[in-house]
Amino acid sequence: MLTLYHTPLSINSRRVWVTLLEKGLQFDLVEVDLGGDQFKPAFLALNPFHHIPVLVDEDFKVIESFAILDYLEAMYPSPPLMPCAPQAIARVRMVQMVTLNELLPALTPLTRKMMGFGEPDAEAIAKAKQQADGVLRFLAQILDNHVFFGVDHLSLGDIVLGTVVPWFAQLEIPLENYPNLQAWCDRLVQRPAWQTTQPTAEALAAFRERMRQLMDRRDQS
Fold it and tell me: For residues 100-120, b (16+ Cβ closer than 10 Å) or e, as one string?
């Protein structure tokens, strides 16, 4: 039996969760409270680097979300989430790595603002939006007029990017200038896997409050 150790608000966790659902696999979910559970001996035995997600398949443990995605694709290849054509493979990999290395770092000031973790200065916000716009322009060009980044079917690239882009409205990054990306995003969020894994407003509010309390205790110490 597969077991995913995760936190619902984690983008890293969500991409694995979505992949498991899209592949139609049976799995158990174990929620890890990042307020301290990640440092307990039981979890450190799964991942000595104390972060999520962790996938356990029988007696085999996999850490790091991208490694987990590759493992799931190789171990459970149906339905496929990687294309076969060389250019399509390259497109999917580019989307994955650009999301990780370019888009997510650019969004950090906007994410902190959305979560209420302080107010970044106006220059940082403007720079973040400019960087995000450059990434979106690149992604829109890659997507072109295809339905998915995997061309004719959902791919790991769609999942990695697609668990970030639905947050753009809350991050005040409109997609109107990229109608192909907007249509792509609209298709994704209608899929059951996205709806099942979408964090609730209550969960987001509870997380914000917990982080506020942690920051208050840190400031008082």
Answer: bebbbebbebbbbbeeeeeeb
Opening angle at CA 199, ends 196 and 203, nearest 5: 135
Domain assignments of the chain as residue spans, ordered by start: 2-79, 86-195
Q: Per-residue pLDDT tens, the chain, 221 aa: give them.
A: 999 999 988 999 999 999 999 999 999 999 998 888 899 999 999 999 999 999 999 999 999 999 999 999 999 999 999 999 999 999 999 999 999 999 999 998 888 877 776 666 788 888 988 999 999 999 999 999 999 998 889 999 999 999 998 888 788 888 989 999 999 999 999 999 999 998 877 777 766 666 565 555 555 55
Whether 197 contacts 17, CB under 8 Å: yes
The answer for residues whose C-beta is within 8 angstroms of residue 98's C-beta and 6 or more apart is 135, 138, 139
126, two tokens: 């403007």
Which DSSP letter does residue 99 get? I
CATH for the stretch 2-79: 3.40.30.10
Conformation bin of residue 83: beta by default, left when phi > 0, alpha when psi is -120 to 50: beta
pTM beyond cutoff 0.85? yes
For domain 86-195, is the CATH number 1.10.10.10?
no
d(CA 119, CA 138): 28
Residue 183: count of CB within 10 angstroms of its CB: 14
Cα dist from 12 to 118, 174, 191, whole Å: 23, 23, 19
